[in-house]
Amino acid sequence: PGVLERDIAMELEFIMRKLGSQRNAFDIIVASGARSALPHGVASDKPLAVGDVVTLDFGAVYQGYHSDITRTVFLGKASQKQRDLYGLVLEAQLAGINSVKAGRHCHEVDAVAREIIARAGYGDYFGHGLGHGVGLVIHEEPRLSPSNPDLMLQPNMVVTVEPGVYLPEFGGVRIEDMVRVTSTGCEVLTASPKHLIELDW
Fold first, then answer.
1. Fewer CB under 10 Å: which end of the chain, C or N?
2. CB 30 within 8 A of CB 48
3. CB atoms within 10 A of CB 191
């Protein structure tokens, strides 16, 4: 509590640089509390508070190639609504990952995760595509999106799978991994744990 979002972003950048990153893949997102409902909430001067949802979206560039990962954690004990929202997004994310396979259409993969969120009544609060290609630039084809009906996944494409639910004034949850498409499914490239994390201090 009391740590500024921008200080967390600076610490993330320092650690990535120390481990070999050439630069940030994009402006680091650290969005806490109600700001976590902003899908692109770049780190601000907001101090973290007990009870905050904290979304961390960051990536490194190594030998010209980009990476992208998002994790959402809770500062202190999560409320039941926060826990339920996290569980829903995690369910959708795992289903999305399990549906990635060479030969699948991008919009079909998006629909698998989107349907889970819509069934729970939060369809209007998932306002972006399920994922995007990552490589020499941070956002490239293929895009896992309802607006991409014709593109088909091919072996060795690298895409993100990142469903999110964003509730104004309450906060949001997003969970993102990068995966490599294979003929039988996909290989998850980002290894950070995804269980619900309640941070103590």
1. C
2. no
3. 8
